[in-house]
Amino acid sequence: xxxxNNLRRPRGPRKNPVAPPPEGPPADxxxxxxxxxxxxxxxxxxxxxxxxxxxxxxxxxxxxxxxxVDFSVLTxxxxxxxxxxxxxxxxxxxxxxxxxxMIKSLDRRGLIERKPHPxxxxxxxxxxxxxxxxxxxxxxxxxxxLESDVAGQLSxxxxxxLKTLLHRIYK
Length: 171
Description:
Number of domains: 1
């Protein structure tokens, strides 16, 4: 008998591959996690709210092939025709190297056009192409509806107060 055959032969009785049931209460009866301290923190609450909105945003923007930052860039270009890359970086707090790839991607998709800037000969103004205008308008309608859906538990006044307070923190 060869060594290889010896390695393949079972040694002793096989053990039952079914694991014993876990000890302790079933999963649906687990003790509640105390998050009370975290819920007193602005950052925790802002992040949890952002995750709730972004989750829906990603689902609804998938048909357009847009991430949140892509949507923001297209929207700023739509509402500010001729905006420069530098202005986009400032408005969205994006580092220039990160914006370069994004602009190239939007350009390859035929969503934007670059034109000479009217006052700065070194800069190019960014404009939406006809396809970009169509996509941005549809995505903006979707974003408006998803905001309404996500913030449905808030009154119009509460939502405006929330936005005002958040602006005061980051502006």
